[in-house]
Amino acid sequence: MRSTLLWENTNLLVKNHVSPSKIPCGFIPVDMDVTPCDNSKTKKEGVSRTYKGCDGYAPMMAYFGREGYLINCELRKGSQHCQKHTPEFLRETIDACRRVTKEPLLFRLDSGNDSTENIGIFLENGCSFITKRNLRRESKEGWLQELKDKCLDITSPRDGKTVYIGSTWRDISYAGSDGKKHPFTIRTVYEIIERSIDKRGQYLFPAEVEVNMWDVNVDFTDREVIALYHAHGESEQFHSEIKTDMALERFPSGKFDTNELVLELAMAAYNILRMIGDESIGPAHPMKHPVKRRRIGTVIKNLVMMACHITRHARRTKLGLGRSNIWRKTFQKVYLSFSCL
Question: How much is the pTM?
Answer without folding.
Answer: 0.90
